[in-house]
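tokens incoming
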């Protein structure tokens, strides 16, 4: 296991350099057989951290495409508009909000089969939270080795868990893509989450450090056609941008029967199951409170400025109105004097 018990996250605003191994990348492709791309990905920056999201919508016609976008939009509103929270609480709340929105939309008969998977990673300081619903996956790649961090919510995964089929039989099973859980399926959604901690290189001693980790989020349209070894090799050897492109092309060369999406996030260290030395929940709480106070102060400053601008605008308008009134009044008096002289 890569995550032993003891043992740049935001994308560039400009053009991504294909030669940089430190810049995250993501790509989504319609594939070879579908008319619409029902997958979506997003990166959301908020006071609670930076969230990477990958969704695989379903529902036929425009239902799947709409479901994935509704989920992304709902999570964006939740994360951006609410005050700073711990990353696990923030991500959980955002996914529940996406579920609420899609459950409501499913009441329309035209969208009764609408739903979407999600796999998400939330970064806040050294804290990293991985959450998922459905069969979109998160992988950890370290030094060419790969570990699946999520467990699919599918019928065949339940068969694997019960020992009725072998793991290698799962993807070729005729019911491989029957979900047991997805966003929108029911109001009381169960979300699988885990918290990990990022250890920077300076905290890892000697043999403990064997290269920085890469986090990979992807949909079944990719891993159904490209095996884990191939994913690990490309992610480890190529830049994130090139690895994304090559993984999609490899899946398409093998049929590309589904939409294909992948995000690769290089990390400035390694993920562990325990917090790094010196980590303090109290310190993180103080930082979040400071962010909240800063956000509130900036909000107050904004509204003070708006009130000032509005007051000056009204004052200027009043001056103009008074000036026009005085001018008209003066003109009327002069006009009256001329008539009397005649």
């Amino acid at each position: 296991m890569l995550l032993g018990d003891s043992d740049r996250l935001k994308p560039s605003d400009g053009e991504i350099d294909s030669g940089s191994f430190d810049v995250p990348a993501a790509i989504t492709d319609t594939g070879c057989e579908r008319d619409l791309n029902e997958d979506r990905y997003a990166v959301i920056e908020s006071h609670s951290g930076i969230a990477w999201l990958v969704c695989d919508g379903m529902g036929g016609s425009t239902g799947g495409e709409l479901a994935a976008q509704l989920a992304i939009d709902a999570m964006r509103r939740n994360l951006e508009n609410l005050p700073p929270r711990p990353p696990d609480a923030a991500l959980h709340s955002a996914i529940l909000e996406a579920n609420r929105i899609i459950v409501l939309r499913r009441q329309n008969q035209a969208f009764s089969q609408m739903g979407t998977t999600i796999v998400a990673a939330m970064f806040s300081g050294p804290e990293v939270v991985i959450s998922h619903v459905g069969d979109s996956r998160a992988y950890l790649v370290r030094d060419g080795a790969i570990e699946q961090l999520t467990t699919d919510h599918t019928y065949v995964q339940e068969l694997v868990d019960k020992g009725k089929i072998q793991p290698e039989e799962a993807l070729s099973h005729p019911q491989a893509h029957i979900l047991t859980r997805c966003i929108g399926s029911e109001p009381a959604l169960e979300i699988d989450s885990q918290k990990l901690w990022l250890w920077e290189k300076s905290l890892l001693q000697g043999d403990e450090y064997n290269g920085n980790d890469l986090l990979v989020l992807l949909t079944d349209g990719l891993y159904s056609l490209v095996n884990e070894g191939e994913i690990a090799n490309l992610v480890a050897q190529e830049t994130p941008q090139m690895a994304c492109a090559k993984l999609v092309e490899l899946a398409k060369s093998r049929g590309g029967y589904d939409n294909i999406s992948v995000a690769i996030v290089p990390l400035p260290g390694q993920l562990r199951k325990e917090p790094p030395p010196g980590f303090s929940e109290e310190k993180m709480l103080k930082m979040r409170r400071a962010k909240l106070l800063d956000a509130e102060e900036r909000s107050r400053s904004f509204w003070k400025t708006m009130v000032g601008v509005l007051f000056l605008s009204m004052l200027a308008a009043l001056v103009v109105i008074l000036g026009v009134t005085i001018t008209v009044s003066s003109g009327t008096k002069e006009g009256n004097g001329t008539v009397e002289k005649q």
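note: Residues 25-279 form a domain with the Phosphatase 2c; domain 1 fold (CATH 3.60.40.10).
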